[in-house]
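hi! just following up on the protien thing from before. the input was this:
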Amino acid sequence: MSEDKIVESIKEVAKNVLPENAKLLLYGSRARGDYSEGSDWDLLVILDKAKIEQSDYDNIVYPLTDLGWGLGESIIPVLYTKKEWESMSPMPFYQNVEQDKRQLI
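and the predicted 3d structure came back as:
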């Protein structure tokens, strides 16, 4: 499957599972365009809520991961609240994501 079709599949699943005001970012080698065959799909989900709950993993992470299994791709979603993500600004991970990111939703 082409990269564009995989991105569209990710967006389609995300639109069905993400709550209102959530953001979905692709980061890492897939966002930069310097990936190799077998590179994973690093996704950052930013939720506009006070706290991440188990149900968020069940309702968001699992469907995206399951999509990857179905496509034969490794889709790795990571969840943060908006406040948690903003507090990460001094961290190298935050800076790398912000530099590489491609907003999908």
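The chain has a mean pLDDT of 97.
Residues 6 and 12 are 10 Å apart (CA to CA).
cheers
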